[in-house]
Protein backbone atom coordinates (compact mmCIF):
# COMPACT_ATOMS: atom_id res chain seq x y z
CA UNK A 1 0.00 0.00 0.00
CA UNK A 2 3.01 2.31 -0.25
CA UNK A 3 3.74 1.99 3.48
CA UNK A 4 6.58 -0.50 3.22
CA UNK A 5 9.00 -2.38 0.97
CA UNK A 6 8.38 -5.76 -0.66
CA UNK A 7 11.23 -8.23 0.00
CA UNK A 8 10.87 -11.79 -1.29
CA UNK A 9 7.09 -11.31 -1.67
CA UNK A 10 6.75 -10.24 1.97
CA UNK A 11 6.04 -6.68 3.07
CA UNK A 12 8.47 -5.04 5.43
CA UNK A 13 6.48 -2.14 6.86
CA UNK A 14 7.73 1.37 7.51
CA UNK A 15 7.49 2.55 11.15
CA UNK A 16 3.90 3.08 12.39
CA UNK A 17 2.46 0.55 9.89
CA UNK A 18 1.72 -3.13 10.27
CA UNK A 19 -0.26 -5.89 8.58
CA UNK A 20 0.49 -8.27 5.72
CA UNK A 21 0.13 -5.39 3.23
CA UNK A 22 1.33 -2.63 5.60
CA UNK A 23 -2.22 -1.27 5.40
CA UNK A 24 -2.78 -0.93 9.15
CA UNK A 25 -1.72 2.38 10.69
CA UNK A 26 -0.50 2.28 14.29
CA UNK A 27 -1.30 6.01 14.64
CA UNK A 28 -3.98 6.36 17.34
CA UNK A 29 -4.61 10.11 16.89
CA UNK A 30 -7.73 9.55 14.69
CA UNK A 31 -9.18 7.53 17.61
CA UNK A 32 -8.72 10.31 20.19
CA UNK A 33 -12.07 11.44 21.65
CA UNK A 34 -12.77 14.96 22.89
CA UNK A 35 -12.20 13.80 26.49
CA UNK A 36 -8.62 12.81 25.62
CA UNK A 37 -9.30 9.08 25.80
CA UNK A 38 -8.75 6.58 23.00
CA UNK A 39 -12.20 5.76 21.56
CA UNK A 40 -13.85 7.58 24.49
CA UNK A 41 -12.81 4.65 26.71
CA UNK A 42 -15.54 2.60 25.02
CA UNK A 43 -13.62 0.79 22.30
CA UNK A 44 -10.27 -0.16 20.85
CA UNK A 45 -8.24 1.64 18.21
CA UNK A 46 -7.50 -0.77 15.37
CA UNK A 47 -5.59 0.47 12.33
CA UNK A 48 -6.41 4.08 13.18
CA UNK A 49 -10.17 3.37 13.46
CA UNK A 50 -12.27 2.88 16.58
CA UNK A 51 -13.94 -0.46 17.10
CA UNK A 52 -16.60 0.41 19.70
CA UNK A 53 -16.92 -2.40 22.23
CA UNK A 54 -19.91 -0.84 24.02
CA UNK A 55 -22.81 -1.37 21.57
CA UNK A 56 -24.62 1.80 22.74
CA UNK A 57 -21.78 3.96 21.48
CA UNK A 58 -20.85 4.55 17.85
CA UNK A 59 -19.17 7.07 15.59
CA UNK A 60 -15.52 7.63 14.65
CA UNK A 61 -14.46 7.99 18.31
CA UNK A 62 -17.31 6.07 20.09
CA UNK A 63 -18.80 9.32 21.44
CA UNK A 64 -22.28 9.18 19.93
CA UNK A 65 -25.01 7.50 21.94
CA UNK A 66 -28.56 7.81 20.63
CA UNK A 67 -30.16 5.98 23.57
CA UNK A 68 -28.18 7.53 26.44
CA UNK A 69 -29.59 9.94 28.95
CA UNK A 70 -27.96 13.32 29.00
CA UNK A 71 -25.08 13.77 31.43
CA UNK A 72 -27.31 15.77 33.78
CA UNK A 73 -30.15 13.25 33.95
CA UNK A 74 -27.69 10.37 34.21
CA UNK A 75 -25.98 11.76 37.33
CA UNK A 76 -28.87 13.66 38.95
CA UNK A 77 -29.80 10.93 41.48
CA UNK A 78 -26.20 10.47 42.63
CA UNK A 79 -25.57 14.22 42.97
CA UNK A 80 -28.84 14.55 44.90
CA UNK A 81 -28.00 11.82 47.42
CA UNK A 82 -24.35 12.89 47.87
CA UNK A 83 -25.12 16.60 48.23
CA UNK A 84 -28.52 16.59 49.96
CA UNK A 85 -28.90 13.03 51.36
CA UNK A 86 -32.18 12.42 49.55
CA UNK A 87 -33.64 11.01 46.35
CA UNK A 88 -34.03 7.60 44.73
CA UNK A 89 -30.47 6.49 45.53
CA UNK A 90 -30.41 7.70 49.16
CA UNK A 91 -30.21 4.13 50.53
CA UNK A 92 -27.59 2.92 48.03
CA UNK A 93 -25.61 6.16 47.70
CA UNK A 94 -22.38 4.91 49.26
CA UNK A 95 -22.32 1.89 46.92
CA UNK A 96 -23.52 3.46 43.66
CA UNK A 97 -22.50 7.09 43.77
CA UNK A 98 -18.85 7.38 44.72
CA UNK A 99 -17.59 7.58 41.11
CA UNK A 100 -17.05 11.35 41.15
CA UNK A 101 -15.31 13.97 43.27
CA UNK A 102 -17.81 16.47 44.69
CA UNK A 103 -17.28 20.10 45.63
CA UNK A 104 -19.99 22.29 47.18
CA UNK A 105 -20.21 25.94 46.15
CA UNK A 106 -22.26 28.73 47.69
CA UNK A 107 -24.06 29.99 44.60
CA UNK A 108 -24.54 29.41 40.86
CA UNK A 109 -21.99 32.09 39.95
CA UNK A 110 -19.35 30.07 41.85
CA UNK A 111 -19.83 27.05 39.55
CA UNK A 112 -17.03 26.36 37.02
CA UNK A 113 -17.61 28.26 33.80
CA UNK A 114 -17.10 27.18 30.16
CA UNK A 115 -13.61 27.80 28.85
CA UNK A 116 -11.78 25.39 31.14
CA UNK A 117 -9.80 22.60 29.44
CA UNK A 118 -12.14 19.78 30.56
CA UNK A 119 -15.54 19.25 28.86
CA UNK A 120 -18.16 20.74 31.18
CA UNK A 121 -21.93 20.23 31.47
CA UNK A 122 -24.10 22.75 33.35
CA UNK A 123 -27.09 20.98 34.90
CA UNK A 124 -30.42 22.14 36.30
CA UNK A 125 -32.51 19.27 37.68
CA UNK A 126 -35.55 18.86 39.94
CA UNK A 127 -35.15 16.99 43.21
CA UNK A 128 -37.66 14.70 44.96
CA UNK A 129 -39.29 17.74 46.60
CA UNK A 130 -39.85 19.38 43.20
CA UNK A 131 -37.15 21.99 43.85
CA UNK A 132 -34.44 22.91 41.35
CA UNK A 133 -30.81 22.15 42.10
CA UNK A 134 -27.78 23.12 40.05
CA UNK A 135 -24.50 21.34 39.37
CA UNK A 136 -21.73 20.97 36.83
CA UNK A 137 -20.21 17.70 35.66
CA UNK A 138 -16.79 17.43 34.04
CA UNK A 139 -14.22 14.74 33.34
CA UNK A 140 -10.53 15.64 33.46
CA UNK A 141 -7.73 14.25 31.32
CA UNK A 142 -7.09 11.48 33.91
CA UNK A 143 -10.68 10.27 33.48
CA UNK A 144 -11.73 11.57 36.90
CA UNK A 145 -15.26 12.93 37.13
CA UNK A 146 -15.75 16.18 39.06
CA UNK A 147 -19.06 17.57 40.23
CA UNK A 148 -19.61 21.05 41.63
CA UNK A 149 -23.02 21.48 43.27
CA UNK A 150 -24.73 24.60 44.60
CA UNK A 151 -25.50 24.21 48.32
TrEMBL record:
Pfam family, one: Integrin_B_tail
Record carries keyword Glycoprotein: yes
Biological process according to GO: cell adhesion mediated by integrin; cell migration; cell-cell adhesion; integrin-mediated signaling pathway
The UniProt record lists the keyword Membrane: yes
Domain Integrin beta subunit tail: 72-151
Gene3D superfamilies noted in UniProt: 4.10.1240.30, Laminin
GO MF assignments: C-X3-C chemokine binding; collagen binding involved in cell-matrix adhesion; fibronectin binding; integrin binding; laminin binding; protein kinase binding
Protein's UniProt name: ITB1 protein
Gene responsible for this protein: Itgb1_1
Amino acid sequence: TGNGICKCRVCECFPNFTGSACDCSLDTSPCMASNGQICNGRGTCECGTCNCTDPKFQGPTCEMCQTCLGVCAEHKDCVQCRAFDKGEKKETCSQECMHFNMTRVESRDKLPQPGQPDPLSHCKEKDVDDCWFYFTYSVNSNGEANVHVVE
